[in-house]
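Field reference: sequence -> structure
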Amino acid sequence: KQGIDVAARAAKLLIIPGDTTDLPTVSGYVLDALAEITSYARDQGVEIILLSGNHDLSHMGRPVISHLGIHRLAHVTVSTEPEVLDVSDKLSIVTAPYGTKWPQIERIVEGLGDVRSWDRKLNGRRQYLFVGHDEVQGADFGNGHKASGGYTLDQFKASPFAFFALGHIHR
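Structure field:
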């Protein structure tokens, strides 16, 4: 609820980069918690963008989120494929749910026009933000654990995005 309270005072948007569940079978506790969170967000006027993470996938490869009915709520957008979400006249979010490869992102960017005109500074013009369910290759999580998959820092540095947010760290 703290995240929703912050979003309600600022952007009216909460982005969850995946792993709303951690098992293909969802417990009653998780269902109740998701219902409470989404209802609270609606009451506060907060839109939610929810990416599908690897733990949100059932054994059949379909998002568990679909089975929960969350995708039918008017204030919740569920992203299960890479896409561009126009949040406002000044903000678009490129989503990369679990399993999205960088060439898919490059194709999306190519379809958005001349990226040299994009402004990487947050100064009031249209911004393109990247939100994904993955990790940066070689990231050090401590205790000798380093990320082996994911995107490279060079890919991010060469991209036109103003901001990046990733979620996929398991602790």
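Note: The CA atoms of residues 82 and 105 lie 7 Å apart.
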